[in-house]
């Protein structure tokens, strides 16, 4: 499985991904799911991938070949991130159809992508591209997107992230979201990759990789657990006098 997050706030972007691609009892493999495509200097584009690894790799290869071969539509010719999302969706659909027609029984070629970055003076942003080729973007009300095993890490994102959340706080929130997911689902695991992009900088120079035994990640996990326990202990006790009680009805 996979878990990836793309946050787009006023100050910029935070992109986070795990690295586990298989979590069988005796078959645990690791593969980076954050992909930076080399483009012209006036743009920075990053992809996060989930789903079928063969499809994801085929899509990435096609994107790079289109740039190298000077295809009419490639990541260097588009003017808006929405065009990137549409182009990526079409390439993904093409690769899925080819794999689906390979004759392999029980083979599911679907892949989902997050694409984020900035082109020229256009605003930075993030898009989620579905296996069907359509896409959505973030909003002021929901400044983040997720792919993969998203349910365990969603509550903290909903409670903390706002469109004006500072980048450093957004990064912390993403790490807690990732840790919550790894704790509840063994199919999501380290290393954890994180990229912080400051708006209008056109630089991808703030990149972090956290291994399972990383001291900072361990400290963050410990403090989060302690504060959750303290908060739970401080909750008011159930008021049985004002609560409505219902009798247990037998069979």
TrEMBL record:
This is Peptidase. It comes from Methylomonas subterranea. It holds the Pfam family Proteasome. It comes from the Bacteria.
């Amino acid at each position: 499985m996979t878990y990836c997050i793309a946050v787009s706030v006023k100050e910029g972007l935070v992109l986070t991904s795990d690295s586990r691609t298989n979590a069988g009892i005796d078959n645990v493999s690791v593969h980076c799911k954050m992909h930076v495509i080399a483009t012209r200097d006036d743009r920075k584009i990053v992809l996060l991938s989930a789903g079928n690894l063969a499809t994801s790799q085929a899509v990435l290869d096609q994107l790079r070949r289109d740039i190298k071969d000077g295809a009419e539509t490639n990541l260097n010719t588009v003017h808006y991130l929405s065009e990137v999302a549409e182009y990526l969706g079409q390439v993904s659909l093409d690769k899925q159809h080819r794999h689906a027609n390979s004759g392999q029984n029980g083979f599911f070629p679907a892949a989902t992508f997050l694409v984020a970055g900035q082109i020229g003076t256009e605003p930075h942003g993030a898009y989620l591209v579905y296996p069907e080729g359509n896409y959505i973007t973030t909003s002021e009300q929901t400044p983040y997107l997720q792919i993969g095993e998203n349910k365990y890490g969603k509550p903290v994102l909903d409670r903390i992230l706002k469109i004006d959340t500072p980048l450093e706080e957004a990064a912390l929130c993403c790490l807690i979201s990732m840790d919550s997911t790894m704790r509840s689902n063994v199919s999501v695991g380290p290393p954890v990759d994180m990229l912080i992009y400051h708006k209008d900088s056109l630089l991808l120079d703030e990149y972090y990789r956290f291994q399972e035994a990383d001291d900072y990640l361990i400290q963050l996990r410990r403090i989060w657990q302690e504060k959750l326990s303290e908060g739970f202990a401080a909750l008011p006790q159930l008021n049985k006098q004002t609560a409505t009680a219902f009798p247990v009805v037998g069979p």
